[in-house]
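Reviewers of the previous submission asked for a worked example of the structure-prediction workflow described in the proposal, so we include one complete record here. The input consisted solely of the amino acid sequence. No template or homolog information was supplied to the procedure at any stage.
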Amino acid sequence: MNPKFDGYMLLKNQYDTEYQIVEKSKMSTGTVYTPKLLANQMVFLAIKNHLRNHQPHLESLFVEQFKTYFSGGAMKITSNDAKVFLEVIAPLRIIDLSCGTGLLLLAYVEYIIELISVTEDHSYDLLRQILKDQLFAIDINPIAIHAFKDLIDEIITATGIAVDFDNAFVGNSLIDHFPIALYSFDLILGNPPYIGEKGHLDWFSVIKETEFGRRYYEGKMDYFYFFIYKGYEYLKDEGTLCYLTSNYFFTADGANQLRNFMRNEFHISNVIDYGNERVFETKKLHAALYTMQKREIKTTTLYNMNLNPIREMAYDSIFDDNMTIHFVEDTIVANIIGKMKLRADFRLMDCCNVNQGIVTGADRTPEGGIFVYTNEEVQELPNSFHEYLKPFYKNSSIKHFYHENTTPYFVAYLNSDTVHDEILQALEPFKEKLSRRREVVNAVRKWHMLTWPRKRTIFESEKIVVPQRAKSNYFAYSDKPFYASADIYYISSKSNMALPLKVLTVILNSKAYFLWLKFNGKKKGNLLELYATPLKNIPIPKFTIRHIKVLEGLSIELFSEEKPSVERLGNMKKKIDECVMDAFEFSEEEKIYLQSIE
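From that input alone, the workflow returned the following structure tokens.
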């Protein structure tokens, strides 16, 4: 950086520190401070994508000469090359729709300054033009906008250019009107707020009342989805958007409309999926950094955190049959998943029911139970409660093949319009709370009843139970009463199901299905999220008669009264894996890969 900018850098460091503290105190707004390295990487990917679309002959030179700089190192470039890049980049119009203190835009400006400082004449006329006509910022927080303007003024003072920076606006970029034209930006950068509708109804209701909100709202969505749509509306047809957000929209139920939009209208051209890596000090978030463009693309490029390309994926291939998004880095994994799709004889939904557990609407209070009680609390309940009490299991009680047979909890399975007065009296202290439930307000349930009790047969007949969130593909067989909450799913046979449930349980615990659910289910960090949709779409191959006999024999031993030893269980798991791998016709290389999974 040119020595002229020492004062600017001191001021910027002050704002970096002070406003990180401000954002820590404003976590409920979903706003998160963007680390400098990530800001640089976003500028890098945005410019790289622009060059690929408009000046492809410069892309490799840009990567070679600037990747080190954008990763925090020193810039190494000739004056001639710096001028070439300035000619291409300086005319671009850029905006951040939720800029905070403007750190993403400042990373872009710093890059321009670095280029200028390398040129022979060190002319800042281009910078003056950029600040006058090309750089725009919007944020709802006036303090943040003030901070950003102060930093821009410090740059103006340091360079000695004569310009008034009037392009930073206070307001809600989703619904307010500003003196800028729609569809007019070459680059859009952003780290928009991460908040869900639950607990932030006022934020969403304001948007939903507008034409924009009515066009793009979908249930269970995150607020930042709106910024993707708004970015699309502000972007030129040949422009590039680069955002840093949660990666949960890849598979979330509340992002079906968004993914469909990405499939057909707004294409993901580059992506870094950070997975379990924490990218923010102040917030635990599974993040992704990606570029998007309106121009149709054939492939998406996957990068690692060092900005090295890992793999090119056909754009169609990142969307599975259920229109969820999956970026598979490893070719072997992609081949295994592809074969599982291709060689499926049927999907689980074709021959099985998948049901969710009980929704009470109010399990307990800190002081004790409402519908869910401990063993000790049960002793204090009126006798009339006892006919409704059922053992109530937690999802942690489910592991591979088996579930725990005891539980310290009971649920009052209240599914009757009329109950004994003793029960009503016991629930009376919670009547106001229970009456506020949506189903009670809508007269679907009486105030004393469970919100969604489900049919008793789901819990009492033969079934497979699955935790909604787990470290592995835990499928447990059960033929005894097993009542549980909505964070457990129940798989039961339809009349056309040929495989016994015990055999199906054995199959679903294999390593192939762990891999399948890891990349085709939902993900929450390193946990599998096994909701109804990914469960229903599990592919089941056609097994030979020989394999069926082996699996039946293993299921008989697994579910006999005497469980196999740890050593014997390990050997049985290997045989199960072999049967499943043979049925899917995996290659030897693919089998070795699956066997290596722990």
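The chain has three domains: 3-329, 332-354+467-474+492-598, 358-453. We consider this example representative of the routine output the project will generate in years two and three.
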